[in-house]
Amino acid sequence: MSYLDYWKFKEKPFEEINDTHFFFESDDHREAFDRMRYVVNDRNMNMGLLTGEIGSGKTLTKSVLTGSLNRSQFEIIDFENSNYEFVDILYDILQRVTFRDSRIDLMNNEIMPQRGDKYALMQAFRKKMEILYYEEKRHLVLIFDEAQQMSDLVLDEVKNLTNVSSKIENFLTIFFVGQPELREKVRRLKQVDQRIFLRFHLNNLDYHNTVNYINHRIRIAGCVDKPIFTTLGLELIFRSTDGIPREINRLCKLALNYGFAHELSEISKEDIQVIIDDIQENS
């Protein structure tokens, strides 16, 4: 028997994977999603900024957004890391943009410019954007995760991609997603800061949302019979994790395994404390 069978789960509830069907709509996460979607659908807002502490759920929120967008209207390119030179980013965009009409791809099957030839890359980018916009009526969405890694120069050059547009509508929307220091970096770069139309910071979960988050993941995983954690146990989970989803996942996963190993019917405050002490002792 595994801990899944023991707790009557159909799947693991607290894995640290980017699984969108576990997405929990706290007030902050829902607002972040709504703001990002609003920026994309408007098509004329240039850029958006999403920040949050490590483990706050930025990447999962971003993934829920991309999954909600109609591919017949949007071409989405997502950079999981952003610590690259601008020419490398531009070269990658050109390779990844695809047209829904295969005939367009065949008609425009030109040789890619050299990676280091910024001028030729920009010309090729403009041509692809014009085809995407005028021929396919689609809008490019670029998302840069871990954007705090980007240098000031690269941030500025990526911003310049929004200059490529028609007379009435932008060809693309850009999102920068990253840790809190990204806000200050952008604020220093006035030319970038002024292009960001909407921004949002994901706060840690409060106690109420922490409890709902844990119960949500347990329910999605298939356990609906009875509560697993006592009220005092939940309070200690909240205090020890500061309401950070990634930390909550780690502690709850350890707690479920601990409960299985010790054949517990529920997990108490004292059980959670044993796990916390073990983490601290071995860290």
Outline of the structure:
The chain is built from 13 helices and 5 strands. The protein is of the alpha/beta class. It has a 5-stranded parallel beta sheet with strand order 2-3-4-1-5, with helices on both faces.
Topology:
Blueprint: H1 3-7, H2 27-42, E1 47-52, H3 58-68, E2 74-79, H4 86-96, H5 102-107, H6 118-135, E3 139-144, H7 152-159, E4 172-178, H8 181-188, H9 190-193, E5 196-202, H10 207-220, H11 231-241, H12 245-261, H13 269-281
Parallel strand pairs: 1-4, 1-5, 2-3, 3-4
Helix pairs in contact: 2-3, 4-6, 11-13, 12-13
Instruction: Report on the biggest sheet.
Output: 5 strands, parallel
Relevant CATH superfamily of the largest domain: P-loop containing nucleotide triphosphate hydrolases
Count, helices = 13
Beta-strand segment tally: 5
Task: Using brief descriptors, characterize the structure shown.
alpha/beta, Rossmann fold, 2 domains, 13 helices, elongated
